[in-house]
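Q: Hi! First time asking for a complex rather than a single chain. Here are the components, and I think there are two in total. Is that enough to go on?
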Amino acid sequence: MTGAISSSYKRERLSLGQQHYADGQALERQGQMEAALDQYREALLFVPDQQDYRLSLGIALLKAGHLDEAQAHLQQLAQEDPTNGRINLALAQVALKRKKTSEAIESYQRAVYEYWPPEAVPERRRARWELVSLLHAAGRRNDEVAELLQLYSSSPNDPAERANIGFLLVKAGAMSEAAQIFRNIELNFPQNSFGHRGLGEVNFANGDYVAARHEFQHALRVSPNDHDAQAALTLTNAVIDLDPVLPNISYQERLRRSQRLLSRTVNEMNQCLLEKVPTPVAQHQLDSARDLLARPHASEEDYSLALQRTAAQVWQNRSSFCPASVPPNRAIDLAIGRISNE
Amino acid sequence: MSSAPADVKPNEAHAGFRSHWKSVQFRLAHIGLSEAQRFLLLALLIGVFSGILVVLFHITIDLVTWTSLGALTGRFRFARLASPAIGAVIACFVVRKVFPRAKGSGVNQTKMAIYTSDGYVSSSTIAGKFIACAISIGSGNSLGPEDPSLQMGAGVASRLGRIFNLPRSSMRLIAPVGAAAGIAAAFNTPITGVLFVLEEVLADWSATAVGSIVLAAVSAVVTMRAFLGNAPLFRIPSFELANASELLVYLLIGVVGGALSALFITVIELCKKHIDKLPHWREYALPAAAGFLTGVVGLWFPEVMGAGYDAINSALHGQFNWDMLLYLGLAKIVVTVLCFSAETPGGMFAPALFIGAMIGGALGGMTHRIWPFGAAAEAYMLVGMGTFFAGVFRAPITSIFMVFEVSASYVIILPVMIANTAAYLISRRLHELAFFKMLAQLEGVNLPSAEEKRNFQPLRVENAMKRATSHITPEAGMRLYPDEPLDAALRLLSLQESVQVISRMRPDDVLGTVTLEDVHRAYGITDCQRSGFGAK
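A: Yes, that's all I need. Here is the structure of the assembled complex.
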């Protein structure tokens, strides 16, 4: 008799729990988060063993910004089922909201490497994408590259997503891996500009501007409306025009480029002077640069080098002199970078 | 039980049942088992039946709650005001008019049964306790189901003891076995059940029935889990202690918990003293008023209604901020004092745990604002729970193990030991009597308590013996050790004039001798008194 009574009691609890849970889901869909939370909590009081209820409550609490309570529920779930990917993902999101980056990364890593039901593959991929962006923000390049390669290995046959992985690999400095991905895109999707644009980005990042220009041009031939490729080509051309250490150019051309680079650098500094009075050191440097540009040049052999050196010094001071509101010219920056590398 | 055939008259059917029942009793009493075996078998049965009873009790409370506070309150918000008041009046009517033996929280009544009526608890007490407490707790009065479960367990044990025709000496031992089973099933914590009965009900750690108490507690919990599942009383997320300096916060919780528990006992004592002077109308009017006020408080803080375990679970999962925890703790103190003082049927364990948890959580939350590196709030709540329990019931060992058992976390032990000890000592300092002792004294009953025993320093042989100034040759005959109780000396001195006291390390080394006169002196009995005794 007790068995029958307790079974019927448990059934009643279950049914009441289900009712509250369904009400909670409906309210959550309507955006009434606080009311939904109350229903989820009620559901859990009737069926405290139901993991789905607790997880829904935890995630809803996270969305509503009740981080302490969300963490308590999710931690309990993680304690009961530590290999559940969804639970670890929610815990990671709580840690992220609390700005506990390393804790969030750990939870994300547990989330992406632990169990997910077969129907939750897209959710797992989303979790991995979140992890990648967190790793990028935290400056953990090696971990980021590893996760991107994992994403690539399980990526769907979608050139956009694959290209996105490749571009992120370029940002993370994994050039050879990125180049391989873009070559594959180029091979498998020849009518798509992503492969060439990506290879252009790789070459650009490697400092091979000429090869980059070639790839960008190719990308634009495949897809003339590719605005990113167009912007990249413009920048590449600008760098090539300024680059005084470009191989296979004549002495006169090198000198002309060096003069142009210093002149552009001084102009950039002058723009900053509109907003800020220069320090004596900066003023002296600018005066020296102007003198150098005005000097007769054909007779001096190392004049070109002096121009480049001065341009580099002026540019170096720029960052401390110019306010953050005046962004540096990227082409000049890259050209100066080339001089420094040489 | 088979029903009587249709052609048999009701009286004949009743007589047939009685004779059948007698034969079952006879067979049970003579199944060829030794006394000890029968006792253990009985302990097992007591555990099972107590477990079943607690399961049904639990279900009935929930059914009453769902009806009164769930369905009704869902339709009419103000049903919350009326529900506890109506429940209290019905429960009081049940206790006063139908089952008058079911009065009180249950702990003192069980102790009284053990010490004054050889463990006899009537079956009507079980029924009365079950019905009255299910109605009062289920309708939202701020009381708990554990103390009634303890008494119902003792009642089950007493009933089974009578069926087994246990001798009088065993009947006294069997009631605590049932009490342990009842409380263990109610808390879903076997260790706590055993310890509470040994510490508070029996007040005797050397009880001969310890084995049976453990067996009954375990079988009750197993039975309860078989019907209601393995869910623990509290679901506590994992936590860890941040660093050693945190112990200061736990000490603070212990100090505050101790002071608050002493205040709690004092307020209930004062209320009960005043209420006892009120005329007869108070028997229904006060529970109704207390229930109504509980409903009023419940409009703002519905968590304080009933036993409050759901609210503790919610609090343990971070649902409330520290200020809300503080309000809940204080509100619960008020409504519990009202309900208990008004003699609404129900127990005190659950409210004590609620108050302790909320106050502990509030203090932890407050210190977190000043010093944000402490442990998680649930740790403070658990410790708070233990401190209030230790302070009110003066059962420090039970309180430590209870927190350990409900949290299943070893890391909590050290803070709980520190905080509970502080709470126990402070509460004892501020209010001499433990909660149940105070209640017993108000009723004019003197029951033994573990605390009294802890304070009692028994005289030993070494306190009476005359130390040897020179070497004494050991004599044949009976001897004593210096650490033996003085009573042992008295027993031997009735057989011989003086007894030698020897060292436990070196049996040939006689430390001194003790005579009847020495014993009298140690007890502080003067010659005049001695001659008076002799005359009597």
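A: Chain A has 17 helices and no strands. Let me know if you'd like any chain examined more closely.
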